Amino acid sequence: MAVLETTILLVLLVIVSNIISHYLVSIPTALIEIALGVIAALLLNLTIELETDWFMLLFVAPLLYADARHFPKKELWELRAPIFANAIWLVLLTTLLGGFLINYFIAEISLPLSFALAAVLSPTDPVAVQGIAEQVKLPKRLLSLISGESLINDASGLIAFKYALAAFLTGTFSLKSATTDFLYMTFVGIIVGLLLSKFLYLLENTLLRQGIQDVILHVSLQILTPFVIFIAAELVHASGVIAVVVAGVVAIQQEPVYKRQYSEIKLVSKKVWDIIIYQLNGIVFVVLGASLPFAMHSAIINPDINNWTLIGYVIIIWLILLTIRTFWSYGYMWFNYIKSRNLIDVKPKFYTAILTGLTGVRGAVTMAMVLSIPFFLLDGEIFKERYLIIFLASGVILTSLIVAVITLPFLTKKRTRLILTGDEAFMDIEGEDAVDDSDLSEIEAKKLMTKKAIYALQLELDIENKTVVTDILNDLDKQLKTLYLNDTVTSNELYHDIEMTYRKVAVQNEFNAVMKLTKEHDFPKIVTKNYLQMLKYKKRAHSTNFSIIMKQSLLKTKKKTKRLLLKTFLRQNYNPQGNQQCIILLENESSKQAIQALQNCEKELNTKDPDYILRKTILHQIILEYQSKIDRLSNFQLRQQEEYQLAYQEYFLKTLDEERSVIQCMLEQGKISSDLAHQLRQSVNYNETTFLQGTFD
User: Fold this and answer.
1) Residue 590, Cα to own-chain centre: how many angstroms?
2) Are 209 and 258 in contact (CB under 8 A)?
3) pLDDT tens-digit profile of 437-489?
4) Pick from 450, 415, 441: which is nearest to 669 by CA?
5) Who has the most CB within 10 Å: 137, 148, 204, 357?
6) DSSP-derived 3-state class of residue 382
7) Is the pTM of this model over 0.85?
8) CATH architecture, domain 45-275+307-412
9) Is the alpha carbon torsion for 176, 180, 182, 183 positive or negative?
């Protein structure tokens, strides 16, 4: 397949996998992307030949640079000792001890080759770590540790793999050469990353001081930074991985180049980086999935080894790696505890060590490294064990991902996703309603949705749209105050049932009022028909069915088309102003009738009812919606200008979109159940239909 077609297909698969992940929130996006990659390889014959050099340059360099730039400086400094211990000494321990154990349990693999396999599996994958972390609420310190470790251990793992493989191919190994090489690659990589980062920073600063504020120029320079630094380090045979990580860390400490007057550069740069990281993260796992069938095929069809035996080997290797990592972490925690001379009150827990072991997932970096194994030995013979090594590495990658996905939610007893870089949709705006990890009730979720909508709308406020935005903000403020009348946690099902009952009463009374008015007034038939049809859609708006949304869209399209035919082709008397007055009358009277019915329901409430406060709160909220509609209609003459109406519609629909975004984010983070998300979407759809009814002309 051509390079262009392959690239487009990879991007498409990333988009599809992310769409699926928004519905299958319990499955990590990484696993969905791997699955789509496997399907594409099997059905579309998608073949991607991974080469370690270009893979590290194209994917690993920008991803590590972006992660390092966003890594908290304070935590990086506080955890410097355990991060470097895991990134260097744990990799070395895994290579040596893991190599001996693999050779002991799997006789088909020689000792040097066992060292190579253990080395290639020793580094954790930064993208895979983040993919797993999205699904569970790991302790903050633990997440910082494994994230920081994954930034550095690629370099040590690559060097260990390089020398272990060379020892197998040549039959010789020099500890002095390996140590010298490691020190050279590390220290020179640090120097290259530091110097080039400072140089590029000064270059940008100089250009800005010279008045060169070209947005495209500065964004392009930022995007090229990790690639330039990686290539420069590799040219002098240093570690490009270490260089880009150092450059990212140094970027944290630099004074911001983009002051307020250059905010456009900052905004565009952030959004472009978000898109790049989004795509690269996804493509890494799609490529991993597409590589698995090829990597496993030759080993599975090998008649010398039983397939079940191969699976058993994968499980053994994964258990070896898990055991080494877990006990290393537990021992290191005790070392720190004893070293602190009891200044730390809490003794180390084996539970935390298990979490550390399970989060040591492997990913596409391991796959890229293992696929670089040559097909032939130095004497020209076929490398017979190549496909076996690739199969075992691939199997361990999948096993580490799947086991982490299954076990971590149970061990952490959480169902929430962590808020990672670029995922800021779910946040408590004021910090006053900090919630725990338990499910939110419907009223709590609606409070959060309303606050988020208010916050988003306040960002839109300026002199030109002040009147429109202020009107909507007033309505949202009233809605929020009503929601705060009841601060007790209420059953989602109970809240929803009560709300739907009263809304049905209100709509039915609207319907009755319209039927009565049509008998008393000679309204145009088309107005009456369309208005009654809108009320029917309003009744059905308690569903998120795609068909309802399509019907609403078709109704608006049909209305505009019919207006065009009447006005242009059939030359009939089209009177939008007269129709508008009829609709205002229908809106006013039907809303008053609905309010009267709801007030009657309020009078009939029993104060001894355990749900009295809740029922009264919901009634007030619905009544407030109708009163706001009447208020807008009463000031219609002042606000009937087309410009105001269009602006009001635009900003109001923005608030509904913001609420939908919060619903989806709460669902993905485990704050609400899928049933509650469905109910909340029903309420938003109802509000949207009510609004469209009010703007119907």
Assistant:
1) 43
2) no
3) 456 777 778 888 888 888 887 777 776 676 677 777 767 766 765 665 554 54
4) 415
5) 148
6) strand
7) no
8) Up-down Bundle (1.20)
9) positive
